[in-house]
Design brief:
The chain is of the alpha+beta class. The chain folds into 2 domains: 111 residues, Cytochrome C3 (Alpha-Beta Complex); 107 residues, Cytochrome C3 (Alpha-Beta Complex), CATH 3.90.10. The protein is built from 10 helices and 7 strands. The strands form 3 sheets. It has a 3-stranded antiparallel β-sheet, with no helix packed on it. It has a two-stranded antiparallel ribbon with strand order 1-2. A two-stranded antiparallel ribbon has the order 3-4. It starts with a helix and ends with a strand. The N terminus is likely disordered.
């Protein structure tokens, strides 16, 4: 037990050391309602608008990662998609759902950008809004109050929320998604930790494919589809590669060691 505690402490020290990179400035843990948020400002400032602050938590409870990052085509890195209002008006990117017509929970998803009134300030401010952080905080806690809790990230255990049926993320958008036959569910498997005495990692395809399908991870993040085909280290993961593409950004952060290292040696 002492060895396990020591190993976890060492990993946390490594992680803490990495956060001092880029000029020696330590990264602060964001508030739970800001965890996973992405600021999009490719064209907003030139148009005289505030940047868009995309809240992953508010969308994650409604849609899978796969439907947005594969079917709709959002890049996995903030700002890389270069979304324009003209794209939304044509029904691409945000406009795929935010068109004033798409039904969701007995309501219609609001229209993001309108051809009839392209600079309707009230409409624009739904997304291009800096405003009072207290309103975002209030909206988050209202959303999260009945969901299972987690120690890190934004404090929501999304896996349990989905398993318990508290959220039912949509994985198919008519006219955008392609119907495909379900693949056989792969069995969980163990990955041996590189640090002696550290519990093995139990990787579950089933838990990941609920949100990602296969396409989010393969082949761009993990080229090989056989166990051991892709070699990587914790340093690379901390650097935002492999598992780190999602974990530390949107999925639970890597400081929650026990979420992955679950099998005793």
């Amino acid at each position: 037990m002492k060895r396990l505690v020591l190993c976890i402490a060492l990993l946390l020290l490594v992680f803490s050391g990495i956060t001092f990179a880029q000029g020696g400035v330590k990264k602060k843990r964001p508030p739970v309602y800001d965890y996973g948020n992405v600021t999009i400002n490719n064209f907003s400032a030139n148009a005289g608008l505030a940047p868009v602050v995309f809240q992953h938590w508010s969308h994650r409870g409604r849609f899978t990662c796969r439907v947005c990052h594969v079917d709709i085509g959002f890049a996995m890195k903030g700002g890389a998609t270069r979304i324009r209002a003209a794209d939304n008006i044509k029904g691409f990117y945000c406009g795929t759902c935010h068109n004033g017509r798409m039904p969701f929970n007995n309501d219609k998803v609001f229209e993001a950008c309108s051809k009839e009134s392209p600079m309707d300030q009230k409409r624009c401010n739904r997304c291009h809004f800096v405003g009072d952080a207290g309103k975002r905080e209030e909206a988050f806690y209202k959303f999260a109050e009945n969901l299972p809790k987690e120690r890190f990230g934004n404090g929501i255990d999304w896996e349990k929320a989905e398993e318990q049926g508290l959220i039912k993320p949509v994985d198919f958008i008519k006219g955008v998604s392609v119907k495909r036959s379900a693949l056989p569910v792969q069995k969980d498997f163990a990955l041996t930790a590189k640090v002696e005495g550290m519990p093995e990692i139990i990787f579950s395809h089933k838990k990941h494919t609920v949100w990602n399908g296969c396409e989010v991870c393969h082949p761009e993040i993990f080229v090989g589809i056989r166990k051991g085909a892709t070699k990587y280290s914790m340093i690379e993961i901390f650097d935002g590669k492999y598992c780190g593409v999602c974990h530390d950004k949107v999925a639970f952060p890597q400081m929650g060691c026990q979420r992955c290292h679950t099998k005793p040696v």
